[in-house]
Design a protein that fits this description.
The complex is a heterodimer of chains A (about 375) and B (about 300). Chain A is an alpha/beta fold and about 375 residues long. Chain A contains 13 helices and twelve strands. In chain B, helix 3 crosses helix 4 and helix 9 packs parallel to helix 10. The relative contact order of chain B is 0.13. The chains are: A alpha/beta (about 375), B mainly alpha (about 300).
Chain lengths: ~375, ~300
Amino acid sequence: MSPRRKGERFSDAPLEGPLLEVHDVITHFKTARGLVRAVDGVSFSLERGKTLGIVGESGSGKSVLSKSIMGLLPKRNVVRGGSIKFEGREIGSATQKEMQHYWGTEMSMVFQDPMTALNPVMRVGKQITESLRYHLDVSRQYAQDTALTLLESVGIPEPQRRLREYSFQLSGGMRQRVMLAIALACGPKMLFADEPTTALDVTVQAQILDLLQAQQRDRFMAMILVTHDLGVVAGRADDIAVMYAGRIVEKAPARALFTQMRHPYTEALMKSIPKLALPSHTRLESIAGRPPDLVNPPRGCSFAPRCPYAQQRCRDEEPKLEPVGTEGHEFACFYPVGTPEGADALATNQAATNQAPTNHAAGAPTSGTI
Amino acid sequence: MTLEGGVALSATFPDPSGAAAPAGLEVSPRKKLGFGGWFALVWLALVILCAVLGSILPGVSSFNTTFLDAASSKPLTHGHILGVDDNGHDTLSMLVVGARASLEVAFGAVAAGILLGGSLGLIAGYYKGVVDLLISTVFDVMLAVPALILALALVSFLRGDPQKTHWPAEVVLIIALGIVSTPVLGRITRASALTWSQREFVMAARAQGAKNFRIMWREVLPNVLPALFSIALLSVGIVIVAEGGLSLLGVGIPFDQKPSWGNMIALFGQSNLRDAPYLVFAPIICLFLTVLSLNLLGDVVRARFDVRESSV
């Protein structure tokens, strides 16, 4: 296949409508233990130039979701379903060959660990110019100049020298900046940032996040920011989706999510952020138990075994993600936080706990770890 | 109080990082060649020089020159440091001239093995699945046949009718031993390619739209090469010995066409071991030192390239 020219990129793509529409996406892995439902029916849409934060703890399927949308998962032993539309075109069932039109030029990804996501035996400059030369069919000199500008724009001092260096000569934050430069090289319309700061020093995390945000705004890119930390997406994402056990349990514009969260899991995540205002040696809040086994998810709401609000109904019936209240706010819960029903449910559970404290304390975590 | 303590502490124990040379400039002990490394380099340079220049070297008589007056003289006789064989060929000259045939076969066969085994192993390790199963099975089948028997069979097949041989003996040996070394080199490459293909930078390259061939060639192969090279150096030693083994069985390079270390050992070992052991031991020692040097060099190469991995 001949390399595509720059002009072809915007050929027949409609400019109105959301950039990415994901409907009921399913990603299951066939393992020896059974089918792992890593992503189990996720829907959302993302406008051009907007940022969606996907938050959830380890194993909630958030990384798998982004790799699944990009089509980067292996074909073998993976069951994919649902529809993924990029600029109105279905890419959910595209082959690797078809996806090569999108990778790099339309969508690209910043990986979690810059230590392993850079080739140790290729110069940094080469890694940036490679996709430029390939996708945009530009001259060697032009690619070099672009790489230099890119490195400058991601805040790398002495970019001329860094171009000639190898990844192991750079610090962690520097490597993540290089990763970002590589991802941005061909001007993608959409950027997946898969826990971009998890492997970094706390001191450079904020810098990298600010850089991501600045680049996203400058280039009018859509971005999906995957993280386990609500603090990371706060103030950076336009919308936030909270994932649990392969599903979105609450989705809202960022402000609405923080001011009027409805799902008990969101509340629990929020509570588990340590607060500076609290006196030292305050016990940190944590969520009891562990995420459910994705091979045999519990009946009913998957968060029920760990939920302080859970009632019998939660264990029998599965709540649906429904739009309620504020525009764009959806959540899946029968007894939402901050409503009379939720308050009643919490009161009932607390009363039961007070009567038989040992029973509840022992019961909740174990039922979560089945 | 604390300030003074701190100052006193830093005065007694100067910061080692401040005193030492900046990281990267100092040579770690593992990077030094050491005696073994130097010995290997010097010996191999000497052998390769002999192989390249051959009878051009001063004092080396060409193989066809005979010294009938000095036939079967002992070592250290005038003009013949390592003696002369029954037919009046100078032993040292034979060693020098023989180095070329031995090295030609050894490096040629390993190069063929790297080309064939390396590319098959890379494909198997990168694509996995059915492709891997197919290629690995072929390797396993080849490894199941004893190497020398496989080489013997291949040589006799490739040589065809001895009356009208169309290929020189070296070419036949290179192809045969290249095929024999293919599964060994291929499996190493496959194992290394398997682990490197799992690395995130391969997925990152894919997410940038790189095609399979490009990823194999640009991302996986450069990372596989160090492992492949250190094994290849060892294989060169093994192939030199194998060439000697084939000569012993009578299918190597014929001695009357061209001496090689292998056919010298084979010929003199059969006819002159009792009366002139130096004729046999001279090529044996050369062979031993060369194989040893290649092993030592292989270790040095591995140690050098492993530094990058461990320091990441």
